[in-house]
Structures are given as structure tokens and as C-alpha cells.
């Protein structure tokens, strides 16, 4: 009985030392893409706000190229130039990010199932960050205009603490304005763990896409 009591006190103390930070964020962006045979190229700009939408959090430019080398199997590479807000010193920090992706899609009637694995490298001035990200998605063709979807993604940290440290649950839809223009909007719940300060983020997003 005493052992159970001391274990309870230990767990309670751990919760006390682990502060949970919760925030509401807004992600907005625009992208332009072009498909040439089995290749697809895209450029996008994104602007993100945090601190309950009150502060600029991040701005970036992203270049993306992908190739469907086998039916329904795609490989891709992405470069991103980031401007991240420096909370402690003010201003923005600049860093570079590279993604290497491998994805598979399977269509069944009006459903589309997909899986994507990503190796991500972020380069800052004095450090680098390496992650493996795996994402599972289900999309449903509701009608000619709406394609709602749900996805789940989990992150594994290679450097520093080698552990799973983040998950994302996303729900949204793609709305086709016309043949070449579309909107994607929805909600994403992000959970960051295995760190000194836990984070729960509620993220709302809207992106405008143009196909040329």
C-alpha cells in the first residue's frame, strides 16, 4: 500500500514539472504546380501565425519535385527556406529544410488510401535536425467539388533524444473551384511529447492551389 502511495506521489510530481503549453495557430498558403508526364513541380509560399493567431510564427518558400516511377508509387524531394520567429531575441532566424519522400496510393471506388514516409533534414547555423515522418491518409470523393480526408502522422527524432516525439491528426477537405483552381482547408491537432515542455496545438489552415 505504501509503495503504491509513493508511486502516485512520484507521478504527480512529474506532472507538476512537465508544463503543458496549448496554442491556437493559423496556417495560410498559396501554391502553383505543373505536371509534365510523370513529373510534378510546385512552388509555394506559406505564412503562419501563433500565440492564438496574434503573432507571426513562420514564413517560408518551398520548391517541390516528384516523380511517379511505378504506378501509384511516387518519390519526391523538397527544399524549404524558413524564416522562424525568435521568441527570446526577437526578429527571425533563417534555416533550410530538405525532405525526401516516398509515397504509395491505392484507390478503391470513391476512396483513396495513401501512405508516405519522409526523411527530413533541417539545417540551422549551429545545428541540424533529422526526422522520420510517416503519414497515413484516407480521402473520399464526396462529389465533383469536395474531397474530404483524414490523416494521421507520427514523427521520430534521430538526433538528440532518439524517440517518437510528435503526432498530428488532420481533418480537412479539398474544394475544387474550377479545373485549375482549388482550396484546401481544415483542422490539425498536434501533440508534442518526450520533451521538457509538452505542447498541444490546435491548427486551422487554408491553402489556395493553382495548376498550370
CATH topology category name: Porin
CATH architecture: Beta Barrel
Helix content: under 10%
Q: Using DSSP, what is the number of strands?
A: 11
Strand content: over 45%
Q: Low-confidence parts lasting 5 or more residues at pLDDT below 50?
A: 4-17
- Largest sheet geometry: 11 strands, mixed, barrel
The CATH first-level class comes to Mainly Beta
What can you see in these coordinates?
This protein has one helix and eleven strands, in the order αβββββββββββ. The chain is mainly beta and 212 residues long. The chain has a single domain, classed as Porin (Beta Barrel). Strands 1-2-3-4-5-6-7-8-9-10-11 form an eleven-stranded mixed beta barrel. Strand 6 and strand 7 form a beta hairpin. The longest helix has 16 residues. The protein is globular.
Write the layout of secondary structure elements.
Layout: H1 2-17, E1 20-36, E2 39-50, E3 55-70, E4 73-85, E5 92-108, E6 111-123, E7 128-140, E8 146-157, E9 163-176, E10 181-192, E11 198-211
Parallel strand pairs: 1-11
Antiparallel strand pairs: 1-2, 2-3, 3-4, 4-5, 5-6, 6-7, 7-8, 8-9, 9-10, 10-11
What is the structure about, briefly put?
The chain has 212 residues and is mainly beta. It has one helix at 2-17; strands spanning 20-36, 39-50, 55-70, 73-85, 92-108, 111-123, 128-140, 146-157, 163-176, 181-192, 198-211.
